[in-house]
Amino acid sequence: MKKxxxxxxxxxxxxxxxxxxxxxxxxxxxxxxxxxxxxxxxKYGVRPHLLxxxxxxxxxxxxxxxxxxxxxxxxxxxxxxxxxxxxxxxLVKGRFLKKQFWHLSDRRNRKGKEEQAATFYRxxxxxxxxxxxxxxxxxxxxxxxxxxxxxxxxxxxxDDKYGDFTLNKILRRNVTGAESLYxxxxxxxxxxxxxxxxxxxxxxxxxxxPQTFQQFLARYNITP
Length: 224
Fold this sequence. Notes:
Blueprint: E1 8-11, E2 15-20, H1 36-44, E3 49-50, E4 59-65, H2 74-82, E5 85-93, E6 100-108, E7 114-126, E8 130-137, H3 144-151, H4 165-174, E9 183-189, E10 204-206, H5 211-218
């Protein structure tokens, strides 16, 4: 069984910001014994509260409220978190002609309810075979960015659910240590304001891209 270690980006009195590695689930499920919540519970002795989740295959920033926080105060944290800006970086198949754009899509969630997904994309570099993109979430739907890119015909490299499976095999065969999914939640930012919880107000967290992601970019002389 693979061992995971907590990478704490920030620890305050009430909140913790973790850099979750790819492959680590946020919470338990069938056959899952080790997950982010279990590691945090082991560290702090009480089960914490996730303000949001990332896919198992996605790495990056997760904000957690410590378990000692009274439940009647959690709503303020959830509301404050939603007021923040969430940024991702990703590598996708093919060339983009647009430099920046909004992608809006109506989708049904697991319960069959229709929801709109909104994401702003900025194309940082684009080549014939792949593009390097920054995404800013407008909404927080399940697999939002992964589904966006698949709909646009530019699946994320390494995506085994919505991606180009043949390309993924070639990538893993030819790129040493290739990421399982080239999608990273790399930055969170909150402005100041009375509607934002004081533990989040004015905060900004940013992490470097995983080493293998950086190595891929370096092959094309791209600065992360």
